[in-house]
Amino acid sequence: xxxxxxxxxxxxxxxxxxxxxxxxxxxxxxxxxxxxxxxxxxxxxxxxxxxxxxxxxxxxxxxxxxxxxxxxxxxxxxxxxxxxxxxxxxxxxxxxxxxxxxxxxxxxxxxxxxxxxxxxxxxxxxxxxxxxxxxxxxxxxxxxxxxxxxxxxxxxxxxxxxxxxxxxxxxxxxxxxxxxxxxxxxxxxxxxxxxxxxxxxxxxxxxxxxxxxxxxxxxxxxxxxxxxxxxxxxxxxxxxxxxxxxxxxxxxxxxxxxxxxxxxxxxxxxxxxxxxxxxxxxxxxxxxxxxxxxxxxxxxxxxxxxxxxxxxxxxxxxxxxxxxxxxxxxxxxxxxxxxxxxxxxxxxxxxxxxxxxxxxxxxxxxxxxxxxxxxxxxxxxxxxxxxxxxxxxxxxxxxxxxxxxxxxxxxxxxxxxxxxxxxxxxxxxxxxxxxxxxxxxxxxxxxxxxxxxxxxxxxxxxxxxxxxxxxxxxxxxxxxxxxxxxxxxxxxxxxxxxxxxxxxxxxxxxxxxxxxxxxxxxxxxxxxxxxxxxxxxxxxxxxxxxxxxxxxxxxxxxxxxxxxxx
Amino acid sequence: xxxxxxxxxxxxxxxxxxxxxxxxxxxxxxxxxxxxxxxxxxxxxxxxxxxxxxxxxxxxxxxxxxxxxxxxxxxxxxxxxxxxxxxxxxxxxxxxxxxxxxxxxxxxxxxxxxxxxxxxxxxxxxxxxxxxxxxxxxxxxxxxxxxxxxxxxxxxxxxxxxxxxxxxxxxxxxxxxxxxxxxxxxxxxxxxxxxxxxxxxxxxxxxxxxxxxxxxxxxxxxxxxxxxxxxxxxxxxxxxxxxxxxxxxxxxxxxxxxxxxxxxxxxxxxxxxxxxxxxxxxxxxxxxxxxxxxxxxxxxxxxxxxxxxxxxxxxxxxxxxxxxxxxxxxxxxxxxxxxxxxxxxxxxxxxxxxxxxxxxxxxxxxxxxxxxxxxxxxxxxxxxxxxxxxxxxxxxxxxxxxxxxxxxxxxxxxxxxxxxxxxxxxxxxxxxxxxxxxxxxxxxxxxxxxxxxxxxxxxxxxxxxxxxxxxxxxxxxxxxxxx
Lengths: 566, 483
Prior knowledge:
The complex is a heterodimer of chains A (about 575) and B (about 475).
Chain A: E1 18-23, E2 26-31, E3 33-35, E4 42-44, H1 47-53, E5 77-83, E6 101-103, E7 108-109, E8 120-122, H2 126-141, H3 157-165, E9 183-186, E10 189-191, H4 201-209, E11 215-218, E12 225-228, H5 241-245, E13 251-253, E14 266-271, E15 280-286, E16 289-295, H6 308-312, E17 327-330, E18 333-336, H7 339-351, E19 358-362, H8 368-381, E20 384-387, H9 407-412, H10 424-433, E21 438-442, H11 453-456, E22 461-466, H12 471-475, E23 478-481, E24 490-493, E25 498-502, H13 515-527, H14 535-545, H15 554-557, E26 562-563
Parallel strand pairs in A: 1-8, 19-20, 19-21, 21-22, 22-23
Antiparallel strand pairs in A: 1-2, 3-4, 5-6, 5-7, 5-8, 9-10, 10-13, 11-12, 14-15, 15-16, 17-18, 17-23, 24-25, 25-26
Helix pairs in contact in A: 2-3, 7-13, 8-13
Chain B: H1 21-26, H2 31-37, E1 42-43, E2 49-50, H3 52-63, H4 75-80, E3 91-96, H5 106-112, H6 114-127, E4 132-137, H7 142-157, E5 173-178, H8 188-195, H9 210-213, E6 220-224, H10 225-237, H11 239-243, E7 246-247, E8 250-251, E9 253-260, E10 266-271, H12 277-282, E11 296-300, E12 309-310, E13 314-320, E14 326-332, H13 340-345, E15 354-359, H14 364-378, H15 384-400, H16 409-418, H17 429-443, H18 445-476, H19 478-482
Parallel strand pairs in B: 3-4, 3-6, 4-5, 9-15
Antiparallel strand pairs in B: 1-2, 7-8, 9-10, 11-12, 11-15, 13-14
Helix pairs in contact in B: 2-6, 2-10, 3-6, 5-6, 6-10, 14-15, 14-17, 15-16, 15-17, 16-17, 17-18
C-alpha cells in the first residue's frame, strides 16, 4: 500500500505534544498520540508508528494502519530500552551526560507497544533478525508453498519477507496440517485456508470497517481455520478489500484469480467513476487490457478501501459492441467517415446554428476539461444545457447517493443545473415543440430520460458522443466514439468538491478518441478561440477562468487531489 | 517432622462436613464477613482516614499473599494496580478454570467447601468496592458449578449476597459462568474474553492490563480460588499474623497436589516453604515415597508446564541462613524448600503447586510426547510461535516416540522450543508449551538422542533387508524374469 499524504482541509486539530525517541540510534521527534483509525480519538503512539515516521520499516503481517491492532503475527517484535532510573526515580546518566538506557530483557511487538520519552527502539539487532527468521519459519511450515499457482505471488508478504528472513530449505520433517481449499466464502471471494496465516486482518476489516461481522476462526491451535459464520455468506459491498488486505494468497478475488500474474500488470493511478465519492484506484492493465482495479490510499477520500461494485465495474470497457467508428448519417444509414470530415462538417453546421436553437446534454461522467470545452461551445451557441442525475442508496462507508463521478464539476462549469437535471424538462419541451433544432448529447441515452425517439427524430442535427451503443446513438446524425476514463486523462470533482486527476491506463479502441481531443478542435472552430493542446493546459486554463477551481493547477492536484471552493 | 497445616482445607474431608450453609455456619462461617462489614473508618497515624475497604486491602498487603494460580504474583500489589478513579465499575473474577495437568486443589474447595470460597470472594469484593463478580469455572466441573450455584443461592437467601449485604449498605452479586473446556480460559485475559462471550484469545498487554482495561474494558481483578480463600483467613487472622505462616516472602499456607509415581498421591496443605520437595515426595505424611524397588527419575514441581527437575540435580542458591545473612548454599533437589522463590531460583517454578513425580519406569520421550500433545491441543492459535510451534513439537515427539525418530531430533526439538518463549507470544502459554520440551530434552538429552539413533539404525537395517529382498526376487524366479 502506498503511503499517501493527507491533504484534508478540515480545521487543524490542536497541536499534539512531541516526544523524542531513538530508532536504531537515530533520534526522531514524534507525536505522543496519534488518532485511532476507527474513532479518531488520540491513542498513544506505538513503536511501529514511530518507526514509520523515522522511515524505518518494521516487517509485519497482522498490523495495518487503518485497522485495530491485533498483535498476533509477532513479526514486528523489536528490542527496546528505556531511560534507566536510579533508586530516587531520577534518570541515571552516563559520564558524558547522556541517559543510561535499561534494555528490556524481553522483546515487544512494535504494533502495540506505546513509546515513551527517551525510549530506544532497536529493529536491526541480531536478536530481532533471529526472531523474524523464527516467526517466518513458523508461518511457513504449514504453508502450502504453492507460489507458482498463487494469485498473490509477486505482492505477497510471505514471499517478500522470505527474501530477507527465509531459509532456502525447510527443516520440517512432519506432515503439514491440511485445511479446506477453494472455500466459496461468498459471491466474490474464494478462500484457501492452507495459505491463511491467521492474521485476522479480514475479520477486523469486515467487523470494524465494513460493519458486517461475517468472518471468524474456528478450531484451535495450528488447526485454526478462517471461515464465514455458519449459515452466513461473506457478501457485503466491501468484501474484496479483504483480498487486498490479505498479506498472503488466502483470500482471492473470483474476478481476478488466475487471470494475470501481478508482476505483469502496469499500474496506473486513476479514480473510480462509479459514484461521486471518487475513490482513488490503481488500474492494473497489460497490453491494453484491464485486469483489475485496486484501491489507492487517499485519507481524504477513501482511506485504503473501495466498494466491490466500483471495483468490478470495468468489464464494460472491453465489451465487443464498443463504438469504434466515427459515423455520419447519409440518408437513412450511418456511414463511417473520418474525424477530420466529421469535425469540419460539424463546425460548419454548429456555426450556422441560430442562437437559442441548440441544446446540450452534457454528462456528469465527463471530465472537467471536456465539460469546460463543451461549456464554451454551449455558450457560443446560446444553448440550454444540463446533465442527467443518477441517484442510488448511499451507504455508511464510501458509496455516495450521487452515482455520477463529476456532478460537481458539471455544476461548477455551468453546464448542469443545481440540482442536476432541473432544466431537462425545458430542453425536452424545446425539442418536442421544435424550438430546439440542434442537440448535442454526451454519454447519455436521453430516450430513457424524457426525450423519446419520436421527438429526437424532429431534430435537424443530433450529435451524439458515447462509448457504447444505445437508443440515442442509433438516432444520431453524427456519432462520435468516446473513451472510458481508463483510456484518457483528466480530472473529476467529487461530491465533496475535491478535484482529482486520473491518468491513462490503456489506449482507446478503433477510431475512438478522448472527448477532450475532438472537443478542443470543435471548440476552436466554433468559438474561434485557440485552446491549450494538453490536458494540463486545459485544466490550468479552466481553473483560471472558473471561480470554483481558483488557485488549482494540474500539478498542484498531486496524486490525491485538492479541494476546490464549494 | 513436617506436617500438614490445614487452614483452607481445615474442615474438608472431615466426617459430617457438608457443602450446605448451615454446616459452614456451624464451623464459624461468615463470621469474618460480619467482622469486616462491621469495621469502622480508622484514622491513620498520618491523619488520613482509612475506609473499611482500604483497611482490608492493607491487611492483604501486609499478609504478603502471593497468587496461588501459577504466577505467584503479590495479591496486594495486584489489587493496588486497580484503576479506582476511572468511574467505571470494578469487576472481580474468581478464576476457577483449574486446568493445569497435575493440579486438583481448587476442585477440593469448590466441591467440598464452596461457602469458604464465596466468603473469601465477598471479602475481596468488599475490599475492592466490587458490586458484580463472576466465578469462571471450567466446563468439566459441571457438578462444581451446581454446588456453587446452590451455595450462592443459600448465601443470597441469608443476605450474604444481594442488596444491602447484612444491613451494611453494600450490594454484591456473584454469578457462576461455566467454560467450555479450553485450557487457555485459565489465562486471565483469555478468561475475560471468554466471559465476554468471545473466543478465549488472550489480550495483548499493553494495553489490556485487567486492572485497567479488563472485563468489558473496566478495571478487573482476577484471583484464583485458593487465593480468595486465603483472603478470608487473612481478614480473620489479620495480615501480620497471617504473614507469620510460611517463610519470609512466601507466606501463608498453600495446597500442594502430588501426583505420579508416589504411594500417596493427593492434596496436602502446607505452610509455604516449610516442607522440602523430598519431604513432600517421601514423607509418610505426604507422598509416602515411591513404589517398591523404584528410583526417583524426575520431578515436575509446579504443574506440567514447569521445567522438570532431574533426580540428583544440585543447585547453588542464595538462602538466608539462621543468622539472617544471605549466603550461597548448595542444595540437593530433594532439599529444596517447596516455596515460590527457591523453586524459581532452581530454574523452574512452583506454579499451581502441582508436583508430578516420575520414577525410573518413565520413558521420558513418551512422557514429553504426552505433555506436548496436551499443549498442542490447547494452544488457542492466536499468535504464531505458540500456534505453530506447539503442534510442531507434538508431531516431532509423536514421530520420535513411535519409531520414526532421528538422532538429531533432540536438537531439532530444542530449536523449535527456543523460538517460542521469552516474550515472543501474547501470553505465557508460549512458555508453558516450550519449557517442558526445553527441560526434558535438555536434562535427558542422551535418552532422546539414543531413541532417535536407535530408530535410524533400525530403519537402515530394514531398508538394507528390503533392498536385499528385492535384489533376490528375480533370481529366485528366473523363468518369471525371463518372460
